[in-house]
Design brief:
This protein has helices at residues 2-41, 74-79, 102-110, 130-146, 163-171, 218-230, 258-268, 281-285; strands at residues 47-48, 58-65, 85-89, 114-117, 153-155, 176-182, 206-208, 234-240, 242-244, 255-257, 277-278, 287-288. It is an alpha/beta fold. The strands form 4 sheets. Strands 2, 3, 4, 8 and 11 form a 5-stranded parallel sheet that branches. A 3-stranded parallel sheet has the order 5-6-7. A two-stranded antiparallel ribbon has the order 1-12. Helix 4 packs parallel to helix 5. The chain binds zinc ion. Residues 58-294 form the NodB homology domain. Residues 1-36 form the signal peptide. This is Polysaccharide deacetylase.
C-alpha cells in the first residue's frame, strides 16, 4: 500500500507538469491560430505572388473591358476549362442597362476571376485636368473596393495615357496599367514584339495586340498564340469586348461570336501540356492589395 501511495504520489508531479505543458501548448496554438486568422480578415494584408515564368513559356490572359452584360457567360466558359479572366469595369456603369451588376462581378471574383478598374465613365483621360483624371481613376477604384472587389489592375480607356496619367494610376494604388496595342499582329505593328515580356517592359504600360474585333477569325487568334510561342514565349493579354450569341452584327466592331470564343478556348485549353497557361493579370504581376487612396 505504502509503495502504492508512494508510486501514486510520485506520479502526480509529472501528470500535473504534463497537463500544464499541454495547456500552455494549446494556448500557444490558439494564439498563433488567432494571429494567423487575423490576416485574411484584413484584405489589405493579402499579397499575391508574381508568376515565375519558365524559359520559353507563354502566358495568355483573357481581358474583358467595359463590364458589358454580354461578358457574363465568359466567366463560366473559362472556368469550365480551368481558366480565369480579368474583367476591367467602369464603376459608373455597373448595374445600368446593358452592363454587369455588382452581384455578377462579386460572383465572378468568387469563382476566381479578377475585377480590375477602367475609370468611372470611360473618358479619354489625357483630355482631362489632373483633378478630373484623379477622380476618374482613384474614385473608381475606391468604389469597386467598397463593393468587396480586390482591385489591383487598371486598363486605360482607349489606351489613352501619358506620364501624368501613369503617375495617377500609381498614386491611386494600382499595381499595373494596361495599354491598347504595342504587340505585333499578322497585319500590323511591324517591329513590335509578338509578346509582352514577364515582367513587362513597363508594368504601367502593358502591351497588347489591341482589342479583338469582329474581323478576327479563330485562326487569327490562334496565330497570335502560335507566333508568340514560336517567338520564345512571354505574355499575350487578349482584350475582348462584346460576346455575341450569334454572328457579330456590323454595328459591333469590338465583338467575337460565342462559337468562335468557345472554339478558341477549346483549342487553347490542351496547350497547357506544352507549357502555355492562362492566368489573370494580377496572377502575372503579383503584389499587395493597396489600400484605397486617401
Ligand atoms: Zn474600355
Amino acid at each position: 500500500m505504502a509503495e502504492g501511495r508512494s508510486c501514486l504520489s510520485q506520479s502526480r508531479t509529472p501528470v500535473r507538469w504534463y497537463r500544464r505543458a499541454l495547456f500552455l501548448s494549446l494556448s500557444m496554438v490558439s494564439l498563433l491560430l488567432a494571429l494567423a486568422c487575423q490576416g485574411p480578415e484584413d484584405p489589405f494584408l493579402e499579397f499575391s505572388e508574381a508568376l515565375a515564368l519558365e524559359p520559353g513559356q507563354l502566358i495568355v490572359s483573357f481581358n474583358f473591358d467595359d463590364n458589358l452584360a454580354s461578358q457574363a457567360e465568359a466567366g463560366p466558359l473559362l472556368a469550365a476549362r480551368g481558366m480565369r479572366g480579368t474583367f476591367y469595369v467602369n464603376s459608373g456603369r455597373v448595374g445600368t442597362s446593358g452592363y454587369l451588376t455588382y452581384e455578377q462581378l462579386q460572383q465572378l471574383q468568387a469563382a476566381g476571376h479578377e475585377v480590375g478598374g477602367h475609370t468611372i465613365s470611360h473618358p479619354r483621360l489625357t483630355t482631362l485636368s489632373e483633378a478630373e483624371q484623379r477622380h476618374e481613376i482613384c474614385d473608381d477604384r475606391a468604389a469597386l473596393l467598397k463593393e468587396g472587389l480586390r482591385v489591383t489592375s487598371f486598363a486605360y480607356p482607349f489606351g489613352d495615357e501619358d506620364s501624368r496619367t501613369r503617375q495617377l494610376v500609381i498614386d491611386c494604388g494600382y499595381n499595373s496599367g494596361r495599354e491598347s496595342g504595342g504587340l505585333r499582329t499578322p497585319s500590323g505593328c511591324r517591329g513590335c514584339p509578338y509578346a509582352e515580356s514577364v515582367p513587362p517592359q513597363d508594368v504601367y504600360a502593358i502591351r497588347t495586340h489591341g482589342s479583338v474585333t469582329r474581323a478576327w477569325s479563330l485562326s487569327y487568334l490562334q496565330n497570335l498564340v502560335l507566333r508568340a510561342e514560336a517567338g520564345g514565349g512571354g505574355w499575350v493579354p487578349l482584350v475582348f469586348h462584346h460576346i455575341s450569341p450569334t454572328t457579330c452584327p456590323s454595328s459591333e466592331t469590338y465583338c467575337i461570336s460565342r462559337s468562335t470564343f468557345i472554339a478558341f478556348l477549346d483549342w487553347l485549353a490542351p496547350r497547357t501540356s506544352r507549357g502555355t497557361v492562362v492566368r489573370t493579370m494580377d496572377n502575372v504581376i503579383g503584389g499587395p492589395l493597396q489600400p484605397p487612396p486617401g
